[in-house]
Please model this.
Amino acid sequence: MLNKIVLTLALVAAQLISLAQADGYAVMKNVDDFKSKAKAVANKTNSISSDFVQKKVLSIMEEEIVSKGKFLFKKENSIRWEYKEPFVYLIIINDGEIFIKDENKENKFDMKSNKTFKGINDMIVNSVSGNIMDDDNYAVSYYESAAGYMVQLIPKDDKLKEYMSTIQVFFDKTSYDVVKVKMIEESEDYTSIEFKNRVVNSEVSDDKFSFK
Amino acid sequence: MKRRKIKVVCAVALFFLASCANNPYKGLTVLSTVDDENLAIAPLVFKDLSKGKLYKAKVEILKNYLSGLLMIKKVKGSKRVIFTSETGLKFFDFAFAPDTFIVHQIMEQFDNKHVVNTLKEDIGALVNFYTDGSFDKVTVKTEAGEVIRRKEGEEWLYYYYEGEQLNKIERASDKKKKVIITFENYIEDIPQLINIAHKDFKMNIELNYIKR
Model:
């Protein structure tokens, strides 16, 4: 039994190290300093308006599937993902409810009914707002490279793990803004979302998060 | 008592007449039977799957609606079909090989024997291999153009052509259509619109090709 645990831990550790090193990242030296600075930035962030580029990488496909759109965040936890190409698709998450519009089809869900979706959403909200480090639902580790910082999260929930075995949140080295989120599946297929043309604390109307 | 008997006889007769009248394959004539190797028309939707095909998918099941992206690609000896949400969450990952069907991954919500079997049949009709057996060339009263069919278990698959272009597949029992799959607007041998409609319960899948 003990051997099994040790072996599992070793494998997890090996995976963590290989993942981190593959990207040129090494274990972060001053975690407390990073955390306090990232949190200070997150605390001052009331809204984010940004373009996003999503890449889905599937081992079987020779090309990645790229989609682009507009992302909006407003404190405390309102989010709007608007995919514009190559398809049109809108998700609004506000007050524990999810609204989805796919062309002319509209759908509304209560997030409380879906623990997994809530987990994914909390992760995204906490990532983009920089609060991910305090989430008890993940085993968190910290890395850095010449280009930036990376916080790696391993979900503790087995269900969530089925969809995302590892989440990597990349921060800009000087501004401490989240620049990229990478969600890796057990199969090593992954989805990455890169934020571009990011504007912080601009006026974002509540209408953007309302759905009738 | 007598009256009731007459009623029953009438009802049975009516049912019989009605089922005859509704049988879309009434008057079907088998012209010849050919080995699949000697078939002039290939019973394939996609002539070349070495490059992956990407479709925006809209699925309606009973009162539920779901959309996402469907990838189809030939990988080694099998055809892989992956369905993800727009945001990259993997709903399922299937492989169709000549003699086997493999579920590489499936989200809990879809993991039900009936759902998997329905998806296997519907998507299988789009990508399947036909290495076993022969086809009947038939004429169906209501349809022009060439029609071929093959037996799959207890059911028939009918393939309708306009010239060399496959424009419809029907799954049917001896008397009743069960699933109708239509292919429209071919560009470079790729149908831009595929629609899968079930007749015995409310389920519809619409696939719109995404050019990359």
User: Anything to note?
Assistant: Residues 49 and 74 of chain B are 5 Å apart (CA to CA). The first strand of chain B starts at residue 29 and ends at 35. The interface with chain A takes residues 51-52, 54, 56, 58, 65, 67, 69, 71, 73, 75, 80, 82, 84, 86-90, 93, 104-105, 107-108, 210-212 of chain B (CB under 8 Å). Residues 27-209 of chain B form a domain with the outer membrane lipoprotein receptor (LolB), chain A fold (CATH 2.50.20).
